[in-house]
Amino acid sequence: TSVAIGFSLKDVLSNYISGVILLSARPFRIGDQVVIEGYEGTIIQIQLRSTTLKTYDGRMIYIPNQEVFQANITNNTAASYLRSSVTVGIDYDADILRARQVILKAVSTLNDVQLEPMPEVLVRELAASTVNLEVRFWVDSRRANFLGTTSMVTQRIKEALKSEDIEMPTEIYTLLLKDVPDGFKQGNVQENDQGNAPPNNGGAIATTHGSTSSQEGTLKEL
């Protein structure tokens, strides 16, 4: 019994000591938005024994201070602003310099995007069907503002590129079709006297090209 009581007191004292250290070191304050060992949310209360965190979906998490003290803590609101980014894919035939200028102008006109540091557009990848640009910009570190501004930036970029006729194509897929009827070539089917397409044991390759404005299909007989 005395051993069990000793272990219980050990945990209690450890939590209290950790609480004192947390209150003095202040890795976070009430109202800060943090990530503690997989739990993400807003600090609601800091007591000597435990720390209370409210997740973004409304759950209340009570974490013993000993665990908080030993955990890796990310304080998302320690700084006033955080950098966000959006990836945009443009057509290979598009003028990259012009696309970057259009994007920068669209992003810089938003009130919630910081002009210092300035937004920037980098060419990040030559993908299968697009040249991928990464748009970087700084916004308020509070989660609601961060997500809202990032969403608005994405929408504004899409609208700006569309207004300037800069294509944002989707992926290109090649499909192998088997047992395609005879005469099924270049998207046309030749019917027999009964109005049915004649059978064929061959195959065809279908290549589809998707874009923001149109889709094209091509069938070639093997």
From TrEMBL:
Pfam family, one: MS_channel_2nd
Main subcellular localisation: membrane
Molecular functions (GO terms): mechanosensitive monoatomic ion channel activity
Disordered: region residues: 184-222
Keywords linked to the UniProt accession: Cell membrane, Membrane, Transmembrane, Transmembrane helix
Subcellular location, record wording: Cell membrane
PANTHER family given in the database record: SMALL-CONDUCTANCE MECHANOSENSITIVE CHANNEL (PTHR30221:SF1)
Family the entry assigns: Belongs to the MscS (TC 1.A.23) family.
Entry protein name: Mechanosensitive ion channel protein MscS
Native source species: Phormidesmis priestleyi
